[in-house]
Amino acid sequence: MTTVAAYAAPAPKAPLERTTIERRAVREFDVLIDIKFAGICHSDIHQAREGWGEAIFPMVPGHEIAGVVSEVGPGVTKFKVGDRVGVGCLVDSCRECDNCKAGQEQHCTGGSVGTYNAIGKDGEPTYGGYSTHVVVDENFTVRIPDGLSLDVAAPLLCAGITTYAPLKQWGAGPGKKVAVIGLGGLGHMGVKIAHALGAEVTVLSQSLRKKDDGLKLGADHYYATSDPKTFEELAGSYDLIVSTVSAPLDFGAYLSLLKTGGALVNVGAPEEPIALNLFSLIGGNKILAGSAIGGIAETQEMLDFCAEHGIGSEIELIGASEINDAYERVVSSDVRYRFVIDTATI
To answer: What is the pLDDT of residues 136-162, one digit of tens each?
Structure first.
């Protein structure tokens, strides 16, 4: 066991504070990662404040981890000391179920293990990236290509894969019209990736406040959803809509924007249930779907794609002492577009 510095929420809704945690000794197939940067995801806030249900405390959030390998176990074959690596939302799974064998570890039926707020196979709680070091099985570690700097790569481990996976699954590409709801931490990555895939991209945001940013990021069009004319003008326009917001929406209104057979895919997860008139699905053979991150192989594919296309996250680099302020700013949508912690400040 090694004692390392971290920032943790000691109790639900409590401010995060500096502390120390124990990291396990490096096992046969483990890598020890010297964390350089950790992104702040809205999921961190939902969990630290128990918005998604009962959680484990003290909690060290963080599942957008970028760093450098500083030690490897004797059985490790995929990485060596000095490699640039990342860790996303998962650190283990059963590895035996059909989903795991198909590279869909995020849907492990035997129980995947989250990077934080979870219990590992050893019965110990997992602690995330708001810390100086982490020990992870090599099979849940990905390589960060040389073309990506670690600070802008960190958010790709959640925000990047969370948007890449549904865009790929639902066929975003040349000749397809794709809309992204919300231009935040997830949404801005959705715009960049959809544009790089060759789709015609529209941002649907509450206001036009971020229109210039959206167009610079690769959007072809930008509309304010607070304007009722938007829904009239865009009815039946899109092959795919990806919703990145964690607020409840009028799903009937957004489904009306789909072409026949189109899909509205949710990657944002509101804390409240939603109401839906099923006629908005039945008319036009429309699809309402969800998508959760991606498997480890697809996460590596996404990183390689982003490096090839020069895609990183738009970040605001902060010191660890600014985490609590950053949480409040995320909740009020006051970030362009992802906070990343410089873990040297922990």
So the answer is: 999 999 999 999 999 999 999 999 999
Cα–Cα distance for residue pair 56/116, rounded to 1 Å: 9
β partners of residue 125: 119
Q: What is the pLDDT of residue 298?
A: 98
Q: Is 149 exposed, middle or buried (0-12, 13-18, 19+ CB in 10 A)?
A: middle
Pairing of strands 30-39, 338-342: antiparallel
pLDDT band at 273 (very low <50, low <70, confident <90, very high): confident
pTM beyond cutoff 0.70: yes
SS (H, E, C) the chain: CEEEEEEEECCCCCCCEEEEEEECCCCCCEEEEEEEEEECCHHHHHHHCCCCCCCCCCECCCCCEEEEEEEECCCCCCCCCCCEEEECCEEECCCCCHHHHCCCHHHCCCCCEECCCCECCCCCECCCCCECEEEEEHHHCEECCCCCCHHHHHHHHCHHHHHHHHHHHCCCCCCCEEEEECCCHHHHHHHHHHHHHCCEEEEEECCCCCHHHHHHHCCCEEEECCCHHHHHHCCCCEEEEEECCCCCCCHHHHHCCEEEEEEEEECCCCCCCCCCCCHHHHCCCCEEEECCCCCHHHHHHHHHHHHHCCCCCCEEEECHHHHHHHHHHHHCCCCCCEEEEEHHHC
